[in-house]
Design goal:
Radius of gyration: 22 Å
Number of helices: 12
Shape: elongated
Strand order of the largest sheet: 2-3-4-1-5
CATH architecture of the largest domain: 3-Layer(aba) Sandwich
Order of helices and strands: HHEHEHHEHEHHEHHHH
Strand content: 5-15%
Length: about 270
């Protein structure tokens, strides 16, 4: 059925997928600003906090920023599921840098600190610790991240940290128990979503990436701000442009219904 859908709508592949390489992602102003701040945080070896509602493009901004980094001078440590406790995060850091996690959380914390410092001092590469879904982090996990940044009597940090999560992350770090961490977050950005014009550009971009050379939808979704996941759900339900809509209704209505039913089940929007 997928081949029939692709052929029917003049596509080379299914649109609105998550598998686009970073160089072909749609970068609207909000995404570009977030990526620029992440890049600055990496160059300054500091802590950045990127927040936004579900679907505003936080992970896309991270992918864009990481793609622009020199791979020979940076080591990316990505944690997509932080719900593993303090030991899980520390063990992931050690393993990503080629070490074997030791027993005992206290000893593991020292080991994680040592491999991060060694990556910078011995290999000349800046470790970049990226924690997605960071709003799921507990206070003990956030505090352990702060403790890893202590280096050379707290005068420098050998690695950069990017925390990306939903808006509740901003409220969590403002709690008194995390005051020390809150002071160390020097880069902050709240992603808001796309404007109507950017929404239209987003739809055109993804259709072009899928091989569509002519306009498909009669209009864009209107609203003050558009989130990627709600946009995808909406644009898949729009009617097809001009004669194609009439043709689909008269000759291929059942096929078109099945097509958009499939599209609605694909949740993520990148």
């Amino acid at each position: 059925m997928i081949d029939a859908v692709v052929t029917r709508f003049g596509l080379a592949r299914m649109p609105f997928g998550r598998d686009l390489p970073p160089s072909r992602l749609h970068r609207h102003a909000d995404c570009g600003e977030a990526a620029a701040r992440i890049t600055w945080a990496v160059s300054d070896k500091t802590i950045a906090m990127i927040t936004g509602e579900v679907g505003t493009g936080k992970t896309v901004a991270i992918r864009s920023a990481v793609a622009d980094l020199d791979p020979s001078g940076h080591t990316i440590i990505y944690i997509g599921n932080p719900a593993t406790g303090v030991r899980g995060i520390l063990a992931h850091v050690v393993t990503a840098l080629g070490g074997k996690p030791v027993h005992g959380t206290a000893a593991l914390a020292v080991q994680a600190w040592a491999v991060l410092a060694g990556e910078a001092a011995e290999r000349g590469r800046t470790p970049v610790l990226i924690i997605d879904e960071a709003h799921m982090l507990g206070h003990d996990q956030l505090e352990s991240i702060r403790m890893m940044t202590n280096h050379d009597m707290d005068s420098s940090t050998p690695f950069a940290t990017i925390l990306a999560g939903q808006p509740t992350l901003r409220h969590s770090v403002k709690l008194g128990v995390l005051a020390a961490l809150e002071q160390r977050i020097t880069v902050r950005y709240q992603m808001k979503g796309m404007t109507p014009d950017e929404t239209a550009g987003y739809i055109r971009h993804h259709l072009e990436q899928a091989g569509r050379t002519t306009e498909l939808f009669t209009s864009v979704i209107r609203g003050s701000k558009a989130k990627n996941w709600t946009l995808r759900r909406s644009c898949r339900g729009r009617r097809v442009r001009g004669g194609e809509a009439k043709s689909a209704a008269t000759r291929g209505g059942s096929q078109m219904s099945a097509t958009f039913g499939y599209l609605r089940r694909r949740r993520s929007c990148r």
